[in-house]
Specification:
This protein is α+β, with helices and mostly antiparallel strands. 40% of the residues lie in helices and 15% in strands. It is elongated, with a radius of gyration of 28 Å. The strands form two sheets. Strands 1-3-4 form a three-stranded antiparallel β-sheet, with no helix packed on it. The protein folds into three domains: 34 residues; 82 residues, no CATH class; 30 residues. It has two helices and five strands; from the N terminus they run αβββββα.
Length: 149
Protein backbone atom coordinates (compact mmCIF):
# COMPACT_ATOMS: atom_id res chain seq x y z
CA UNK A 1 0.00 0.00 0.00
CA UNK A 2 2.88 2.33 0.75
CA UNK A 3 4.27 2.02 -2.77
CA UNK A 4 0.93 3.07 -4.36
CA UNK A 5 0.69 6.21 -2.24
CA UNK A 6 4.33 6.98 -2.82
CA UNK A 7 4.00 6.60 -6.64
CA UNK A 8 0.89 8.81 -6.87
CA UNK A 9 2.58 11.41 -4.70
CA UNK A 10 5.39 11.58 -7.27
CA UNK A 11 3.11 11.61 -10.33
CA UNK A 12 1.02 14.61 -9.23
CA UNK A 13 3.96 17.10 -9.12
CA UNK A 14 5.24 15.80 -12.47
CA UNK A 15 1.82 16.30 -14.09
CA UNK A 16 1.60 19.78 -12.55
CA UNK A 17 5.04 20.78 -13.86
CA UNK A 18 4.21 19.43 -17.34
CA UNK A 19 0.93 21.39 -17.41
CA UNK A 20 2.77 24.53 -16.32
CA UNK A 21 5.42 24.09 -19.03
CA UNK A 22 2.72 23.52 -21.66
CA UNK A 23 0.95 26.76 -20.61
CA UNK A 24 4.21 28.73 -20.75
CA UNK A 25 5.04 27.30 -24.20
CA UNK A 26 1.56 28.12 -25.53
CA UNK A 27 1.73 31.70 -24.22
CA UNK A 28 5.22 32.19 -25.64
CA UNK A 29 4.02 30.96 -29.03
CA UNK A 30 0.92 33.18 -28.95
CA UNK A 31 2.62 36.41 -27.86
CA UNK A 32 6.13 36.20 -29.32
CA UNK A 33 5.96 33.95 -32.38
CA UNK A 34 2.40 34.28 -33.75
CA UNK A 35 1.78 37.72 -32.17
CA UNK A 36 -1.90 36.77 -31.97
CA UNK A 37 -3.32 39.61 -29.90
CA UNK A 38 -4.76 43.10 -30.44
CA UNK A 39 -2.81 46.31 -29.95
CA UNK A 40 -4.45 49.58 -28.95
CA UNK A 41 -2.52 52.75 -29.75
CA UNK A 42 -2.81 56.47 -30.41
CA UNK A 43 -1.76 57.76 -33.82
CA UNK A 44 -1.40 61.26 -35.24
CA UNK A 45 -4.49 63.12 -36.36
CA UNK A 46 -5.07 66.32 -38.35
CA UNK A 47 -7.72 68.34 -36.46
CA UNK A 48 -8.49 70.39 -39.58
CA UNK A 49 -9.47 67.26 -41.53
CA UNK A 50 -10.67 64.80 -38.85
CA UNK A 51 -12.37 64.78 -35.47
CA UNK A 52 -9.48 64.08 -33.09
CA UNK A 53 -9.06 63.29 -29.42
CA UNK A 54 -6.94 65.40 -27.10
CA UNK A 55 -6.08 65.04 -23.41
CA UNK A 56 -7.27 67.66 -20.94
CA UNK A 57 -4.05 69.03 -19.42
CA UNK A 58 -3.71 71.27 -16.41
CA UNK A 59 -1.33 74.22 -16.46
CA UNK A 60 0.99 72.57 -13.93
CA UNK A 61 0.99 69.18 -15.70
CA UNK A 62 4.29 69.24 -17.62
CA UNK A 63 4.15 65.57 -18.71
CA UNK A 64 0.71 65.81 -20.30
CA UNK A 65 0.71 65.69 -24.12
CA UNK A 66 -2.32 67.53 -25.50
CA UNK A 67 -1.50 66.98 -29.17
CA UNK A 68 -4.44 65.64 -31.23
CA UNK A 69 -4.69 61.90 -31.86
CA UNK A 70 -7.03 59.19 -33.06
CA UNK A 71 -7.21 55.66 -31.71
CA UNK A 72 -6.24 52.53 -33.63
CA UNK A 73 -6.87 48.89 -32.82
CA UNK A 74 -5.05 46.28 -34.89
CA UNK A 75 -3.55 42.82 -34.78
CA UNK A 76 0.00 42.75 -33.43
CA UNK A 77 1.09 40.58 -36.35
CA UNK A 78 0.41 43.49 -38.73
CA UNK A 79 2.73 45.85 -36.83
CA UNK A 80 6.22 46.26 -38.27
CA UNK A 81 9.03 44.82 -36.17
CA UNK A 82 11.43 47.47 -34.91
CA UNK A 83 13.95 47.69 -32.09
CA UNK A 84 13.21 50.54 -29.72
CA UNK A 85 16.58 50.05 -27.98
CA UNK A 86 18.61 51.11 -31.05
CA UNK A 87 16.96 54.57 -31.19
CA UNK A 88 15.35 53.46 -34.43
CA UNK A 89 12.14 55.32 -35.22
CA UNK A 90 9.30 52.84 -35.48
CA UNK A 91 6.81 53.66 -38.23
CA UNK A 92 3.36 54.74 -37.12
CA UNK A 93 0.79 51.91 -37.26
CA UNK A 94 -1.71 52.07 -40.12
CA UNK A 95 -4.58 49.91 -41.30
CA UNK A 96 -3.95 47.77 -44.37
CA UNK A 97 -6.77 47.63 -46.89
CA UNK A 98 -7.24 43.86 -46.46
CA UNK A 99 -7.01 43.85 -42.64
CA UNK A 100 -10.50 43.31 -41.21
CA UNK A 101 -9.34 43.45 -37.59
CA UNK A 102 -7.98 47.00 -37.86
CA UNK A 103 -10.22 49.87 -36.75
CA UNK A 104 -9.57 53.59 -36.41
CA UNK A 105 -11.71 55.48 -33.91
CA UNK A 106 -12.39 59.20 -34.37
CA UNK A 107 -13.61 61.43 -31.58
CA UNK A 108 -17.33 61.64 -30.88
CA UNK A 109 -19.54 61.87 -27.81
CA UNK A 110 -19.87 58.07 -27.80
CA UNK A 111 -16.10 57.41 -27.96
CA UNK A 112 -14.87 59.97 -25.40
CA UNK A 113 -13.23 58.61 -22.28
CA UNK A 114 -12.52 60.37 -19.00
CA UNK A 115 -9.91 63.11 -19.38
CA UNK A 116 -10.37 63.47 -23.14
CA UNK A 117 -11.96 66.15 -25.29
CA UNK A 118 -12.71 66.38 -28.99
CA UNK A 119 -10.85 68.89 -31.14
CA UNK A 120 -12.61 71.78 -32.90
CA UNK A 121 -13.26 69.82 -36.11
CA UNK A 122 -16.80 69.00 -34.98
CA UNK A 123 -17.52 72.71 -34.63
CA UNK A 124 -16.39 73.39 -38.18
CA UNK A 125 -18.42 70.36 -39.29
CA UNK A 126 -21.53 71.72 -37.56
CA UNK A 127 -20.86 75.11 -39.14
CA UNK A 128 -20.85 73.36 -42.50
CA UNK A 129 -24.19 71.79 -41.62
CA UNK A 130 -25.50 75.24 -40.71
CA UNK A 131 -24.26 76.54 -44.08
CA UNK A 132 -26.15 73.70 -45.73
CA UNK A 133 -29.31 74.69 -43.86
CA UNK A 134 -28.97 78.27 -45.10
CA UNK A 135 -28.60 76.97 -48.64
CA UNK A 136 -31.77 74.91 -48.29
CA UNK A 137 -33.57 77.92 -46.80
CA UNK A 138 -32.48 80.00 -49.81
CA UNK A 139 -33.81 77.25 -52.07
CA UNK A 140 -37.12 77.31 -50.20
CA UNK A 141 -37.26 81.10 -50.59
CA UNK A 142 -36.68 80.73 -54.34
CA UNK A 143 -39.54 78.20 -54.50
CA UNK A 144 -41.83 80.64 -52.68
CA UNK A 145 -40.84 83.47 -55.03
CA UNK A 146 -41.40 81.23 -58.07
CA UNK A 147 -44.77 80.09 -56.78
CA UNK A 148 -46.00 83.64 -56.21
CA UNK A 149 -45.00 84.78 -59.69
Amino acid sequence: MKSTVNASAKILPVVFVLALLAAVAWNYSTFFIDRDYLVYSEISCDPEMESCFSWVCGEEDNECDDSPYKKIELAAASLPLCDMYTNEECPEPTCNTNDETCTITYCSDETLEEGEICTDFEETESEREDDGDETSEEANMEEVVTDTL
